[in-house]
Amino acid sequence: MAQIIDGKAVSASVRERIAKETAEFAKETGVIPGLAVIIVGENPASQVYVRNKHKACQDVGMHSVVIEMPENTTQEQLLEKVDELAKDNAIHGILVQLPLPAHIDEEEVIKAIPPEKDVDAFHPANVGRIMIGNQSFVPCTPAGVMELLDAYDIEIEGKNCVIIGRSNIVGKPQAMLMLQKNATVTICHSRTKNLAEVTSKADILVAAVGRSKFVTADMVKEGAVVIDVGINRGEDGKLCGDVDYDAVFDKVSYITPVPGGVGPMTITMLLKNTLTAAKDSVR
Ligand code: NAD
């Protein structure tokens, strides 16, 4: 029977630590870490994420600004706003909520954020730093996974880590972080052959596919650690992950539930990156 990795509890304790460090840092330097989030258009899911980020910042004593721009905002107008925030000394982290409307070139916008304020770590300079292992920021979701493994003292060094998914925001940076911890890492994706054969060799299996109940019991090794990054709607309309949780539960040693596993960690890691950006700004 598996031990459940409680992302809510770990997230709460990390946020408590961040709040304490934020207060100490403000006292020492007079600088309050500040995050600006730009949202373009009215995507309801994005609006919820942005509201949650704003509230999380306030809860840990950070300065938070939300900039709402209309759907018909031009690329130039958005780049001007990013530039304005880049020059604003009260703002240490800039995040442009994705996805952007189709007429805007996401890559150009990400590149316009100064790397030292890029708290999502999507700028090519930050992606490169992750590759060579001297990053300041790590993309929030894979950073959250690492924090969870650490909180439960799960050893990574020398382990077979298999990641299903190769996206720029989850799969690839997840692989790099595990490699930095001396794991033997395999990345699987939609063209991987004999997927179950590969995943069933994993000591630590990370699922970031975006398909409910994709990982079945036969794909998982006895005693493995299973980290479920997926956020999907099941047939019953409820939130569920990529892993067939009930089927896998008795076979594995640790598992993250959905909701309540990786999800709560993502915004927490954004707060951590914002604090890091503020600290770096006074160095
Ligand atoms: P994505 O769509 O960019 O990537 C999905 C990956 O899955 C791709 O690399 C693809 O190759 C792989 N894949 C698809 N079908 C496959 C198959 N049959 N076999 C093997 N691999 C296959 O998605 P993403 O942005 O990386 O997100 C993945 C999931 O994680 C989604 O459910 C998303 O909602 C969730 N997510 C959660 C958080 C969080 O905070 N917990 C953050 C980001 C993403």
Secondary structure blueprint with pairings:
Layout lengths: L2 E2 L2 H23 L4 E7 L3 H16 L3 E7 L5 H12 L6 E4 L9 H7 L11 H9 L7 H12 L8 E5 L6 H10 L3 E5 L6 H5 L4 E4 L17 E4 L3 E2 L5 E2 L4 H5 L4 E2 L7 H19 L2
Parallel strand pairs: 1-11, 2-3, 2-4, 5-6, 5-7, 7-8, 8-11
Antiparallel strand pairs: 9-10
Helix pairs in contact: 1-10, 2-10, 6-7, 6-10
Bound molecules: nicotinamide-adenine-dinucleotide.
Task: Explain this structure.
- This protein is 42% helix and 16% strand.
- It is α/β, with parallel strands linked by helices and 283 residues long.
- Strand 2, helix 2 (44-59) and strand 3 (63-69) form a beta-alpha-beta unit.
- Helix 1 (7-29) packs parallel to helix 10, helix 6 packs across helix 7 and helix 6 (140-151) packs across helix 10 (263-281).
- The longest helix is centred in the first third of the chain and has 23 residues, at 7-29.
- It is globular, with a radius of gyration of 19 Å.
- It binds nicotinamide-adenine-dinucleotide (NAD).
- Nicotinamide-adenine-dinucleotide binds next to helix 10.
Report a brief summary of the structure:
It is built from ten helices and eleven strands. With 283 residues, the protein is α/β, with parallel strands linked by helices.
CATH architecture of the largest domain: 3-Layer(aba) Sandwich
The assigned structural class equals alpha/beta
Query: Residue-averaged pLDDT, rounded?
Result: 97
- Gyration radius (Cα, Å) is 19 Å
* Relative helix content: 40-55%
Could you please say which CATH topology of the largest domain applies here?
Rossmann fold
Strand content: 15-25%
Number of E-state strands: 11
Shape: globular
Terminal-residue CA separation: 48 Å
Count of the domains? 2
What is the CATH first-level class name of the largest domain? Alpha Beta
Listing every helix as H and every strand as E from the N terminus to the C terminus, the arrangement reads EHEHEHEHHHEHEHEEEEHEH
Instruction: Identify low-pLDDT runs.
Output: none
